[in-house]
Design a protein that fits this description.
By secondary structure, this protein is of the alpha+beta class. It has 2 helices and 8 strands, in the order ββββββββαα. The structure holds zinc ion (ZN).
């Protein structure tokens, strides 16, 4: 059974891993951080509802991870975010919003510390082939279906 949320989570009945907490972030506001080392494929956050269905990040609410252009988290299913690899204690758990947003006209200015920072993150970034390869297997299901449909056409 899941543990109860350790603090304000995304949505009224969202769930958060007990070894993660929100702290002030160098990227923006508050972020989600690993308190202890985490193994790969650890589910750290489960949303109260499948808010990624419409690809709109503004519906995700407080407690959702910050965007980072070199993601630590990927989507285990349409509600759960998991570590894509081993994570050291103290790491900010960022998600690449491209993995869950497919909204034309949406954008976010990014100043994350990654050398991969795209600076302007847009609602069509899921179409970037390098991102499709880097995050293979970790896309939010609605966006994964778009990628698969695109492959089927070519
Ligand atoms: Zn960035």
């Amino acid at each position: 059974m899941p543990e109860p949320a350790a603090g304000p989570g995304p949505g009224a009945d969202g769930w958060r891993h007990r070894d993660v907490e929100t702290r002030p972030s160098a990227i923006a506001g508050r972020g989600l951080f690993a308190v202890r080392d985490l193994a790969g494929a650890t589910v750290v956050l489960r949303l109260a509802r499948a808010t990624v269905a419409g690809g709109r990040v503004d519906l995700l609410g407080a407690g959702f991870p910050n965007h980072g252009c070199d993601a630590v988290l990927g989507w285990a299913d349409d509600r759960a975010l998991a570590t894509m690899g081993e994570v050291a204690a103290g790491t900010e758990l960022v998600a690449d919003y491209a993995m869950s947003i497919s909204e034309p006209g949406w954008y976010l200015r990014c100043h994350c510390p990654s050398y991969r920072c795209r600076q302007m993150v847009e609602g069509g970034d899921w179409q970037i082939p390098q991102l499709q390869r880097r995050y293979a297997g970790w896309w939010a299901p609605p966006v994964r279906r778009l990628i698969e449909a695109g492959r089927a056409e070519t």
